[in-house]
Amino acid sequence: MKAVHFGAGNIGRGFIGALLRQSGYDVVFVDVDARIIHELNTRRAYEVKVAEQTVEPFTVEGIRGLNSRTDEPEVIEEIASADLITTAVGVAVLKFVAAPIAAGLVARKDSQTPLNIIACENAIGASTMLQEYVRALLTKEEWLRLKERVGFPNAAVDRIVPNQGERDLLSVTVEPYYEWVVDETAINGPAPSIHGVTYVKDLLPYIERKLFTVNTGHAMTAYLGFKQGMKTIQEAIHDEPIASRVRQALSETTALLADVHGFSEAELRTYAEKIWLRFRNPHLSDRVERVGRNPIRKLGYNDRLVKPARLLLDRGYEPQALVQGIVAALAFDVSEDEESVRLQKMLSENGVESTIVEVTGLKRDDELVKRIVKSEMED
Ligand SMILES: NC(=O)c1ccc[n+]([C@@H]2O[C@H](COP(=O)([O-])OP(=O)(O)OC[C@H]3O[C@@H](n4cnc5c(N)ncnc54)[C@H](O)[C@@H]3O)[C@@H](O)[C@H]2O)c1
Ligand SMILES: O=P(O)(O)OC[C@@H](O)[C@@H](O)[C@H](O)[C@H](O)CO
């Protein structure tokens, strides 16, 4: 069995690639980073360190790499004979990986081997997004022929993998916890047997629970910490005023999740307590710049701050802490982060209200916009 994985970054090497190898897949990493691909092909192995004293590091072996810029024919060839394709490239990059995937699918010709393509990104419906990008690149006939043989199941992936030091290009430190949930209703053929994957019939509760707790809490910690000049999540979460706002945001989103998806309060409390310990893991150091990256994406209509806030308001709850998190996101000013630079430019040229309307997709007269503008003025 062969898996082609796009994105040999933190989550690609530290989570998806490692689990695929443990499940017996021959793994081909595809990335645009020539240095990483060179190292993967030279060493054919890398080390995964687990951020917990009692767990020994392990080596992921039997892997190779392709550069999607310079090895295009080889990438297409590998896709043509793959049993599984996964991505962990960032949701904005899906439109670029769609081109080699579409060409590889066409190259499968009449192959009857079932194929599944799973986008492991932090977004609701990422595989469906990728499917639409791929479909747009194919003729109607090609798509009709392929769609019976290719599945694009959505997924929720959870494992904190910080940016790695530059001392070793390949070794990666991960937290011990992980969760990978896949929508089994969109699987083509038999469900791939992947160590650690849970197949579910209804993914939405799982992805929303993950995005609106782990990622909401994480983003709040990063933005509030950044505002206070803090460097890491671990530093920020130990600051009592920040911790208390993050706790309040989590109690807002867990109330929503109980209401919308019927999770029990006890279950959500246990889940949230676990997250709390994960953020405070003393063996991890995760920079606020990584966790807050791409603030425009994170302020999106269906993303971790605005979606729970607007759903809570619709239900008559006051999302006070979430609004404070949105306001903190507006202050995220990191010169290396292209979205942060764009956001700051929009704020200085157009002001808070217009920027909020533009980046969140909310209407100008939305109650949530009023709350954000008011909170920003009081801040
Ligand atoms: N790191 C985490 O804790 C974590 C956890 C869960 C989900 N995720 C999600 O996983 C995805 C990747 O995150 P990450 O932290 O691993 O980021 P990362 O930056 O470490 O890795 C992304 C990789 O994609 C590569 N890439 C960029 N454009 C490409 C292209 N056109 N073709 C092939 N490769 C390309 C980059 O070179 C990089 O190696 C994101 O959607 C993120 O939200 C991350
Ligand atoms: O990857 P992003 O930019 O959507 O979010 C940053 C972090 O919150 C995220 O990478 C978490 O570490 C991860 O989602 C944990 O599973």
From TrEMBL:
The keyword Oxidoreductase applies. It catalyses: D-mannitol 1-phosphate + NAD(+) = beta-D-fructose 6-phosphate + NADH + H(+). GO terms for biological process: mannitol catabolic process. Its EC number is 1.1.1.17. PROSITE patterns: MANNITOL_DHGENASE. The keyword Cell cycle does not apply. Keywords: NAD, Oxidoreductase. Residues 202-374 form the Mannitol dehydrogenase C-terminal domain. Transmembrane segments: none annotated. It is an enzyme of class 1 (oxidoreductase). One of its GO terms (molecular function) is mannitol-1-phosphate 5-dehydrogenase activity. NAD(+) binds at residues 3-14. GO terms for cellular component: cytosol. Residues 1-195 form the Mannitol dehydrogenase N-terminal domain. Belongs to the mannitol dehydrogenase family. PANTHER family: ALTRONATE OXIDOREDUCTASE-RELATED, MANNITOL-1-PHOSPHATE 5-DEHYDROGENASE. This is Mannitol-1-phosphate 5-dehydrogenase. The lineage of its organism: Bacteria, Bacillati, Bacillota, Bacilli, Bacillales. The gene is mtlD.
